[in-house]
Amino acid sequence: MVRLTGIFSKLEPAKVLVIGDLMLDTYTIGKARRISPEAPVAVIHVQSEENRPGGAGNVILNLVSMGAEVIAVGRVGADHAGDLLRKSFEGEGLSTEGLFVQPNYPTPVKNRIIAENQQIVRIDHEKVLPIPEMLEQQVIESLPALLKDVKVVAISDYGKGFLSKTLLSALIEQAKSLDIPVIADPKGIDFSKYQGATILKPNLSEAYAAANLTPDIPLDQAAIRILQLSKAKTLMVTRSEAGISLFHQDGTRQDYPVRIREVKDVTGAGDTVLAMLSFAIANGLSVGESAQLSNLAAGIAIERFGCARVTLSDLAWRLLEFDAANKVFDVEHLFALQKALHGRKVAILGLNGHKGLSSAIFNTIRQLGHRHDVDLLVYVKDENPSEEFVNILAALHDVDFIILQGENLRSLCEKIHPEEVYVMEGDKLHKLDGASALVNNA
User: Fold this and answer.
1) What are the domain boundaries of the chain?
2) Which neighbouring-strand residues pair with 71?
3) What's the CA gap between 358 and 432, in Å, rounded?
4) Which of 91, 63, 92, 90 is nearest to 312 (CA)?
5) DSSP state at residue 203
6) Global pTM?
7) Rounded distance, CA 204 to CA 259, Å?
């Protein structure tokens, strides 16, 4: 059985507060057809332009895609970029109660120029301005209402000046008083401002810089310094292709490797990790379990171009890919299968195995399972199917998934709406009008 699918099934909508530096990511996309006569640079013929929330906004979008209820807290300027961010959040069904407008503050904009699926240059419009004391107090006074029913607080610090020591201290103190875990993605070298956070999540270079150590020193020594300084319960260090390492106050360490097909763009991968980590912790998963799911999410994100939004369906499918030999799904692992098959074409074949794998069954499976655009799910109708028969089915390349119990099939069909449904009666294949005919006889 897929090792993490049981854990995955625990994920359900949860309320997460994300606070941090909001910015607008813009993408100018075109083709490079010639070299400019004015200078040795490419001329980009623009074909499209896109605007998306960036920085803490990317964490927010990823959480929304995972099914979380998100409370967004940050500042914007009284400008066009700030209006676009507000409209984008409203378009996602998010409350803008936690968006605070700072006069004379330009909302940060990062414009990426893209040609032939390559980022040519990034143009940043931003000013690092500290939060005014009056606005800082306004945010602090709003925290009790914003923290209502929140399961996790995620801090996304991009060092733009919004997250002052005073604001962070008040936030962490209030969250701790409500037993709400705080996860901080830090910036800069002074990690003391996140003191009391439950989990601190720097990348490798940030960890060494904060510990004032060089990369030739063992990472464990840097972790000890940071844990002493921040008093965090756990330090999570993201190490790019080396995966994720966890360091705990009791001196223990856990390492989780990452598996990636192809690195296309690392933009926003750290935001994806913070989102997945926060969502998993909000659902009561352990830090170790959450780190493994975060690794999967990061692996998906960096295989895509730009700041990717990773869904539970994406994660479920990746879980199944990593343990493709385990095709049999029971109730504990059914949720992952439901998410993985969402939006895909599925054919269901119901059959009895009391006579074993006959040539008729084998040929039918080959016929139905050879199509690349359809996933074949076999439902074994026997009340107590032979283990040998199930193992033989699982060994067949054309069989993608196997369901053994009728109630499991019923629950699955309510979610995925299969494209085709068949049943083997003796050596004859019959096509059914829909899943209900097979489910009702399950």
Assistant:
1) 5-309, 328-440
2) 17
3) 21
4) 63
5) B
6) 0.81
7) 18
Rounded Cα distance between 299 and 266, Å, is 9
List, for residues 258-316, the tens digit of each pLDDT value: 765 554 445 557 899 999 999 999 999 999 999 989 988 888 877 665 556 888 888 88
What fold characterizes domain 328-440?
Rossmann fold (3.40.50)
Under DSSP, is residue 23 helix (H, G, I), strand (E, B) or coil? strand
Euclidean distance between CA atoms 157 and 113, whole angstroms: 25
Q: Contact at 8 Å (CB) between 175 and 147?
A: yes
Q: Which of 43-52, 157-166, 167-176 has the lowest mean pLDDT?
A: 43-52
**Would you identify the CATH topology of the domain 5-309?**
UDP-N-acetylmuramoyl-L-alanine:D-glutamate ligase (3.40.1190)
Q: Render pLDDT for 202-217 as a digit per residue (tens, 0 to 9).
A: 999 999 999 999 999 9
Buried b (16+ CB within 10 A) or exposed e, 54-82: bbbbbbbbbbbbbebbbbbbbbbbebebb
* Catalytic-role residue among 21, 271, 314, 400: 271
271 is catalytic: yes
The string over 417-442, giving b where at least 16 C-beta atoms fall within 10 Å of a residue's C-beta and e elsewhere, is ebebbbbbeeeebeebeebeebbeeb
Convert 354-382 to b/e letters by CB count within 10 Å (16 or more is b).
Answer: eeeeeeebeebbeebbeeeebbbbbbbbe
For residue 203, give every residue at least 6 positions away whose Cβ sits within 8 Å of its Cβ, in sequence order, or none. 237, 238, 239, 240, 270
Counting Cα atoms < 13 Å in the Cβ hemisphere of 251 gives 0
- The candidate with the shortest Cα–Cα distance to 420, out of 375, 358, 382, is 375
Of the two residues 163 and 405, the one the predictor is more confident about is: 163
What residues contact residue 335 under an 8 Å CB cut-off, 6+ apart? 5, 8, 9, 11, 316
pLDDT tens, position by position, 73-123: 999 999 999 999 999 999 999 999 999 999 999 999 999 999 987 888 999
